[in-house]
Amino acid sequence: MENHDEVPEGMTRIPLDGTWGAGPDAELTIVTKGEDGQNVEKTYVVPYLALHMQRIQMMSDMNFILGFKVVKSEARTPGLKELGL
Question: From CA 48, how far away is CA 37, in angstroms rounded?
């Protein structure tokens, strides 16, 4: 039986348990209209690469949301640095 714990020289094992992440995080702020007529902002922290910018813009264009703001963090996960991304 082959030992899967050994990594050949010059190769990097990428764990598939989510510890490498999907790039830098981003803060996504969605602006909607509350029941009292006031603007309501909710901020979510998600991996930047998980954002579907065309879909978010479409939601704004169709007036499902009033607006949005995306702020990308500068931090990169160690795994992506190792891969040069």
Answer: 31
